[in-house]
Amino acid sequence: MSRLSSSTAPDVPRPVSRGIVHLGLGAFHRAHQAAFTHEAALLTGDSSWGITGVTQRSATVAEQLRPQDGLFTLVEKGPGIDRASVVGSITEVISAVDDADAVVDAIADPRVRIVSLTVTEKGYRLDPATGRLRVDDPEIVADLTGRSPGTVVGQLVAGLALRVKLDAPVTVLSCDNLPHNGVLLAGIVRDYVAQRDDATALQSWIDSAASFPNSMVDRIVPATTDEDRRRLEETGLRDDAVVVCEPFRQWVIEDHFAAERPAWDLVGVQFVTDVEPWETMKLRVLNASHSLLAYLGVRSGHSTIADAVADPVLKSLAHRMIVSDVAPTLHPDMNSDAYANEVLTRFANPTLPHTTRQVAMDGSQKLGPRLLGTVRDAQERGSSTTWLAVAVASWVAYVIDEVRAGRALDDPMADVLSRAATQDDAVAALLSVEQIFGADLGPDSPFGRRVAAAADLLVGSAAVTTEFVANIERELS
């Protein structure tokens, strides 16, 4: 069987030079930024925006894409929709595990005008409570001793340091689900640079020649399955790198670039002066309800998000959290009701098997931006936090249940969480992890006590039922 490549798909337009380096070459990037970049090139004929994609933790994606010359099939699936197209914007793939120096050299290339990132929350190696770089992280310490950098920030700063000699401006564009992601990334870079001998000169150049715009990205992209690959092979073409996603997509970026950018505006990207209203609504509505449905979905025996949102009790809980607790914290010009209904409809897409356990991973990094920031804003306003407490409690109960069942946690703080979950009062021990909850939302705080009450109702219980909801209303409302 023929495999997708430049020789088997010669009509797919390809860039002729590198313009973007992307750190974190996962399925989301390919379904989102790479697709936007490909379509912009089709419209304009500009062939200078080839993407050099970097895989960070595993060489698997590199092994999938290299024999295909960077080409992959993007399959959009929804009710009544099943369409496929070949995306040609990725021209080179580097495995940072195998060749970190090649990553640095790519970032330093003066033809590169944008370095973008989708490395997930944990890739930033930040303290969730402070949003600052953990400079004592062993991998950060190792990078600063002069090895070929193994962390994202180490690779980025090493590449920027080489660009100083060329005085080549560059935009560093975070596309991860973090509040004020550009500002946050700039702060992490600053924290890292401050540990270097050339800190003053390097930071001065970064301040003048690099920009870190905030952005918001949105598209549901579940892990590709063997069945997805098999279905594509029925067309007579093998594609080991196929990506499946929903039809919906959105990208909002602050129009603050240090150098040129692709004509993304022609293919639906919104350039704005302030991305905060979109970013906050997406994190607090879509991502927060995603997490709630994941943790409670696992408890109720639902393997996918679509199954979880089809459960009327879980869907009702997600909707209550959005309307009662989240909406009052959003920008008044944002239509949170319409967005909530749209999000829950998207989650119900039965053609996307986005697993609850996939969404549940890395909770220690996700709670802050998705839920705890909303809690703090709601408390300041004096508005409801009842269902936010249930959402946090669902994570607490999930961690305890996983540890007690002997299953390994997929979380960068797994060791800390596992120790806490084995304490006599596991709920209080988890709420006492200040790296997550800070000093203000711990077990003795009013919110912490509400979380503990909800978690006590959840731990060890079976599926979430209307009786659980009634008990929450009685005890927390």
Could you walk me through the main structural features you see in this protein, from its secondary elements to its overall organization?
It is built from 21 helices and 14 strands. It has helices at about 25-30, 35-45, 60-65, 100-110, 140-145, 150-165, 180-195, 200-210, 225-235, 275-300, 305-310, 310-325, 335-345, 355-360, 365-380, 385-405, 415-420, 425-430, 435, 445-460, 465-475; strands spanning about 1-5, 20-25, 50-55, 70-80, 80-85, 90-95, 115, 170-175, 210, 215-220, 235-240, 245, 250-255, 270. Strand 4 (about 70-80) and strand 5 (about 80-85) form a beta hairpin. The longest helix has 24 residues, at about 275-300. It is globular, with a radius of gyration of 22 Å.
How large is the radius of gyration? 22 Å
Please work out how many helical segments DSSP would assign.
21
Q: Per DSSP, what share of the residues sits in E-state strands of 2 or more residues?
A: 5-15%
Tell the overall outline: globular
Strand order of the largest sheet: 6-3-2-7-8-9
Largest sheet: 6 strands, parallel
Q: Helical amount among residues, as a percent range?
A: 40-55%
* Stretches with pLDDT under 50, minimum 5 residues: none
Key phrases:
477 residues, alpha/beta, three-stranded mixed β-sheet, 21 helices, 48% helix
